[in-house]
Amino acid sequence: xxxxxxxxxxxxxxxxxxxxxxxxxxxxxxxxxxxxxxxxxxxxxxxxxxxxxxxxxxxxxxxxxxxxxxxxxxxxxxxxxxxxxxxxxxxxxxxxxxxxxxxxxxxxxxxxxxxxxxxxxxxxxxxxxxxxxxxxxxxxxxxxxxxxxxxxxxxxxxxxxxxxxxxxxxxxxxxxxxxxxxxxxxxxxxxxxxxxxxxxxxxxxxxxxxxxxxxxxxxxxxxxxxxxxxxxxxxxxxxxxxxxxxxxxxxxxxxxxxxxxxxxxxxxxxxxxxxxxxxxxxxxxxxxxxxxxxxxxxxxxxxxxxxxxxxxxxxxxxxxxxxxxxxxxxxxxxxxx
Length: 337
Prior knowledge:
- By secondary structure, the chain is of the alpha/beta class.
- The protein has helices spanning 16-26, 48-53, 67-76, 90-95, 97-116, 151-170, 195-204, 224-236, 255-266, 290-296, 304-322; strands spanning 7-11, 32-36, 58-60, 81-84, 122-126, 173-179, 182-183, 210-212, 218-219, 222-223, 244-247, 253-254, 273-275.
- The strands form 4 sheets. Strands 3-2-1-4-5-6-11 form a 7-stranded parallel β-sheet, with helices on both faces. It has a two-stranded parallel ribbon with strand order 7-10. It has a two-stranded parallel sheet with strand order 8-13.
């Protein structure tokens, strides 16, 4: 499928992965590029580079759970392809599980229904590796059972099943991408912050980084540029329709090693401190990406060490601009090797 010359919409497009996807989609030369984001976690500043590269970019600050409003936007903009990235973060589902679960499910259900009605043609749904729960076997392929540990993961898994049902029952043009542990610039660093920006901020504040649990938890960290490359590749390949596709690095990394890598890049020698394990934290995640390799010729391009360096440098510059206390003095410069 060709994206060039098509009219494209991204829900959650002012968020972390969403804004990087918008940047990547510009390279496909769409006829129109629309973002719908209620700015719960997304930020308009995440779209600054996209607006420079695509001046016609339009942002609707709207709630994608509003079915009629989404119908209006999709119809008015004559959208052909929708990327479904809007969500509620996992930690919010631990505080407001009913609200978070309903929103996550409705975001996807609405788009499935509008696609069934013919309001737009193609839906690319973004899932999460959290739907798998902790690994029953290693590495985790797309046939791995869904065993969610949190309301967030359960709602995302339910949304995935709804997508599958609409494909099976109504034949909608849809594919599901299941990313593993994306990290990189623009990841949320405030309320509901991701582990990577949280650790970077702690070190830049001269605080020892906190590891929850023993640090032996395994994750499959994927630099966000590789994540969005996979999402675009799934959209362009019609062999993915009706399928779930893992997008990841295929490389195991302990939480402890992630933290130590960030400490090394920043020249921080005190090391981490340990805190009790967080509620419902999965123990092991490692993706089998052979399906993406076979269908999409997918290969992650940014290795872990390079990705950590790029991410740390981006946050250092951000915090220096914002005047974060102690963000620049007394730490070794980041290394690019």
